[in-house]
Amino acid sequence: MDIEGEESEAQVSVLEELLKQTSFTKGIQEDIKILDRLVQKDNLFYGPGTISVNGVRSEDWPR
Q1: What distance in Å separates the CA atoms of residue 51 and residue 34, rounded to the nearest whole number?
Q2: Which superkingdom does the taxonomy of this entry point to (predicted)?
Q3: Residue 9's pLDDT is what?
Q4: What is the pLDDT along the chain (63 residues), one digit of tens a residue?
Q5: CB-facing half-sphere around the CA of 63: CA atoms within 13 A
Q6: Rounded CA gap, 58 and 23, in Å?
Q7: Which residue of 9, 19, 46, 56 is surrounded by the most CB atoms within 10 Å?
Q8: How far apart (Å, rounded) are the C-alpha atoms in residues 14 and 35?
Q9: How far apart are the first and last CA of the chain?
């Protein structure tokens, strides 16, 4: 393979990785929108590492 071919392959690989990260980020943004709607609708609080529904913290939820 020539140098140009290898360079193009590297660019494609970088673009594919960026696309994966963008899709993942969009998924997280959708999850945050859903949580925001729940916060406005119900007695739901979420903060760093903890989600509380009606006063019950996520650490105390049944597994």
Answers
A1: 13
A2: Archaea
A3: 82
A4: 455 667 788 888 888 888 887 777 787 888 888 877 777 665 555 555 566 667 776 666 666
A5: 2
A6: 27
A7: 46
A8: 32
A9: 53
